[in-house]
Amino acid sequence: MEQRRANNNNYMVAYHNQFDGKEVDQTYIDLKTDGMSTDAFALYGNNLKDRKMRFLNDYILKHPFTDHFEDYARGDVL
Question: Is the whole model's pTM more than 0.70, yes or no?
């Protein structure tokens, strides 16, 4: 159980590092998407969500989480 708790914490650090802190920051996202067309905004959002979900799925395969943390992490991506 201790290892799974460590995996939870390590995932949060890895997630932040993977997305360089910027793509998880709402201010950065607002600046990046300001003035985008609806289609471009939807494409941007879907691409970001897909990359984050792939990262999460790949991470879980090697580092299992505690029971409810996976639900939290998936919800955070969505």
Answer: yes
